[in-house]
Amino acid sequence: MTSVPETLPRVRPRKAKIGLVAGGLGAYWPQFPDLLPQLQRSATRVGERLRALGEDDFEVVDVGFISDPYEGAAAAERLRVAGCDLIVGFLTTYMTASMLAPVAQRSGAPVLLINLQPTEKMDHDTFDTGAWLAYCGSCPLPEMANTFRRAGIDFRSVCRAFWRTSGRGPGSVGGYGQRLCVARSGTPGMG
Fold first, then answer.
1. Rounded to whole angstroms, how far apart are CA atoms 25 and 66?
2. Domain boundaries, the chain
3. Rounded Cα distance, 13 and 39, in Å
């Protein structure tokens, strides 16, 4: 007869894996030279904040910034191999569904589409088209939603404005104010 130990060793569950991919339409970069670096800084900040949020609970697999469908396909493969439990797609400005749909299809994981406005409001008097494009994270959302729904991809979307505040107070989180603009389900009947 085999003896049974008095206590069993604790089995630690594996950390969840969250894939992060950010992107924008590569055709903009030659036209608006300051746009890509600004959007990449935003994507880096989102990655840092996501890693800080999940430090003990989940691992972030950040595949970087994509600018065309070919880079999207490469990111899709990296996320598939990583075995992510959730994909976060950061829509920094307009991008085509052909850039992000392969990521969602190949990963087999649910998708959260986010777009974060860089400040509470635009300075319309001084903005040019390139500066305006940094506020266009919601522009690809209808195209993404329609494509994902037709493809049967489970997704959610969240739109927020994040801006630096002078301190802590009502509406601020860690020195960052936030305003929820839209939260919607991508699949009928899901909350």
1. 8
2. 16-185
3. 35
Tokens standing for residue 15:
């950390």
Please identify which residue in the block is written with the tokens 């746009």.
35
One digit per residue, the tens of pLDDT, for the chain of length 191 reads 677 777 878 887 888 999 999 999 999 999 999 999 999 999 999 999 999 988 888 999 999 999 999 999 999 999 999 999 999 999 999 999 999 999 999 998 999 999 888 887 888 888 899 999 999 988 999 999 999 999 999 899 988 765 444 444 333 333 333 333 333 444 443 33
The amino acid at 152: G
Amino acid at site 83? G
DSSP category for residue 114 = E
Count of Cβ atoms closer than 10 Å to residue 38 Cβ: 17
Distance CA 58, CA 14 (A): 9
171-to-113, 115, 124, 167, 174 alpha-carbon distances in Å: 23, 19, 24, 10, 10
CATH topology of domain 16-185: Rossmann fold (3.40.50)
User: Under a CB-based contact definition with an 8 Å cutoff, are residues 162 and 64 in contact?
Assistant: no
